[in-house]
């Protein structure tokens, strides 16, 4: 009999162990008529299998199309020369039985080898095939098999996991809010409208309204991991039409900076965890997409918006002190902060009220500014947060002033008429966190099946 084994842990069974593995035929090479080498891949791990001897098994192996799914049973042995390859095992399998469970088409639209190459490699050797982003995404199920992609989505899962773990330990409760709602939660633009049994409705642009209503419902601290829908019109490297939101909302004692304290604890824990527990995954990504490790400190730098504006102006960048920052200005500020403070992770606090959503609390000392903040990684926003208005009259007035139809969010405004504590929260874009931590440059790389303004398939 044979024992089922994982390719990644094949080194632990002793030499001579009889194992069975199932995986994809990553490479097939015939040597004469009686020997074939078959590389079997499982996740990001591969093992070389030697198919030798008569009975036609070597010929059968040589005829396998790449990416076909096979069962291999045989004996673990140590090759005379170690098999080369980054995730290759130091052992090989001498095959006694070979079955093909699913035959891949002989002409794959893209190959995992081509999709695994770094831009540098392709540039160096002109003969190599460059697989463009669109083609990768068209054939995403093949593209996802690269070592870098296997690592990216394992890292994404870890970010989500640490987010949950840290917030649970801080007394937050995980909730799920409706994604079919009656009115836009972030204000008019970029909303997918639909008919809810004849009634106008939309896909939630965030859990904003209902996470606040959960606070009104007596939960002191809540979080949610769930889909967020934005009808983004323009194609950019960092906007998706559907992404995963990591949201938190909590009552406040004195000041909105209590939110910054939670963000601080949370993200230092996320980054530390990635750097230690996910070192192998980061390496796999770096092999295809080289990047410098993120610079961050134990306590996160907090700058006021005014300070940020001043730094930009001193550097000769033209910015409106009471307006929003452009993507380029944010990027520039990220560089200035890195030069001056040596960190690529920081918070910008006290934004002008005019550039924040209608539910944002104005500062008590100067209502032109708000109790809000954004958080940046490598000069790009990953989080926005704020204290919320919990007075229903002020909330309705701010909504109307920003052109939000109060009628469509009446139940939300009313929620604050039955007793509502001071509170605030923040929202994180999961795909952005992974994209920016790993310096990937395009959010489509960190979405399993991205939905961008043009793409609804696969
Ligand atoms: O800045 P946003 O729009 O803020 C909110 O949704 C608030 N309700 C959050 C809060 O609690 N105050 O979105 C939050 C985060 C952004 O910082 C960004 O990381 C991400 O969500 N994000 C997007 N990610 C991908 N594609 C898009 N189109 C995104 N829009 C925002």
UniProtKB/TrEMBL annotation:
Keyword Ligase tagged: yes
Record bears the keyword Ligase: yes
UniProt enzyme class: ligase
EC number: 6.1.1.12
Record field: catalytic activity: tRNA(Asp) + L-aspartate + ATP = L-aspartyl-tRNA(Asp) + AMP + diphosphate
One annotated Gene Ontology cellular component of this protein: cytosol
Sorted UniProt keywords: Aminoacyl-tRNA synthetase, ATP-binding, Cytoplasm, Ligase, Nucleotide-binding, Protein biosynthesis
UniProt-annotated location(s): Cytoplasm
Family listed: Belongs to the class-II aminoacyl-tRNA synthetase family. Type 2 subfamily.
Gene3D superfamilies, alphabetized: Bira Bifunctional Protein, Domain 2, Nucleic acid-binding proteins
A molecular function (GO) term: aspartate-tRNA ligase activity
Chain ranges of the Aminoacyl-transfer RNA synthetases class-II family profile domain: 153-450
InterPro entries from the UniProt entry: Aa-tRNA-synt_II (IPR004364), aa-tRNA-synth_II (IPR006195), aa-tRNA-synth_II/BPL/LPL (IPR045864), Asp-tRNA_synthase_2 (IPR004523), Asp/Asn-tRNA-synth_IIb (IPR002312), NA-bd_OB-fold (IPR012340), NA-bd_OB_tRNA (IPR004365)
GO BP, one annotated term: aspartyl-tRNA aminoacylation
CDD domains xref list: AspRS_cyto_N, AsxRS_core
UniProt name for this protein: aspartate--tRNA ligase
Pfam families on file: tRNA-synt_2, tRNA_anti-codon
């Amino acid at each position: 009999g044979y024992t089922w084994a994982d390719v990644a842990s094949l080194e632990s069974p002793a030499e001579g162990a009889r194992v069975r593995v199932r995986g994809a035929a990553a490479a097939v090479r015939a040597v004469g008529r009686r020997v074939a080498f078959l590389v079997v891949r499982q996740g990001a791990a591969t093992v070389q299998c030697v198919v030798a001897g008569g009975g036609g098994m070597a010929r059968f192996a040589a005829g396998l199309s790449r990416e076909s799914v096979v069962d291999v049973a045989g004996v673990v042995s140590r090759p005379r020369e170690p098999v080369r390859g980054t995730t290759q095992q130091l052992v090989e399998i001498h095959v006694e039985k070979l079955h093909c469970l699913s035959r891949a088409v002989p002409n794959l639209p893209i190959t995992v080898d081509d999709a695994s190459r770094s831009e540098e490699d392709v540039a160096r050797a002109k003969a190599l095939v460059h697989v463009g982003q669109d083609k990768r995404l068209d054939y995403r199920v093949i593209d996802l098999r690269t070592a870098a992609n296997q690592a990216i989505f394992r890292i994404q899962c870890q970010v989500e996991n640490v987010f949950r773990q840290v917030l649970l330990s801080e007394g937050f409760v995980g909730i799920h809010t409706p994604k079919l709602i009656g009115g836009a939660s972030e204000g008019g633009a970029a909303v997918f409208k639909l008919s809810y049994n004849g009634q106008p409705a939309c896909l939630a642009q965030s859990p904003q309204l209902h996470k606040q209503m959960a606070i009104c419902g007596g939960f002191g601290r809540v979080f949610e991991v769930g889909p967020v829908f934005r009808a983004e019109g323009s194609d950019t490297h960092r906007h998706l039409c559907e992404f995963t939101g990591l949201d938190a909302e909590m009552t406040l004692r004195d000041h909105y900076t209590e939110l910054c304290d939670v963000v601080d604890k949370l993200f230092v824990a996320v980054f530390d965890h990635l750097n230690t527990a996910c070192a192998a995954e980061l390496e796999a990504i770096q092999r295809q997409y080289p990047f410098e490790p993120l610079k961050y400190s134990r306590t996160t730098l907090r700058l006021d918006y005014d300070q940020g504006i001043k730094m930009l102006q001193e550097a000769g960048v033209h910015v409106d002190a009471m307006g929003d920052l452009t993507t380029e200005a944010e990027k520039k500020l990220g560089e200035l902060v890195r030069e001056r403070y040596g960190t690529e992770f920081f918070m910008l606090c006290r934004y002008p009220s005019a550039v924040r959503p209608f539910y944002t609390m104005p500062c008590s000392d100067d209502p032109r500014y708000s109790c809000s903040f954004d958080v940046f990684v490598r000069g790009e926003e990953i989080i926005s947060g704020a204290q919320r208005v919990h007075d229903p009259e002020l909330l309705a007035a701010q909504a109307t002033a920003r052109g939000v139809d109060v009628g469509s969010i009446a139940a939300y405004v009313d929620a604050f008429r039955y007793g509502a504590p001071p509170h605030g929260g923040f929202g994180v874009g999961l795909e952005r966190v992974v994209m920016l931590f790993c310096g990937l440059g395009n959010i489509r790389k960190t979405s399993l099946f991205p939905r961008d303004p043009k793409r609804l398939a696969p």
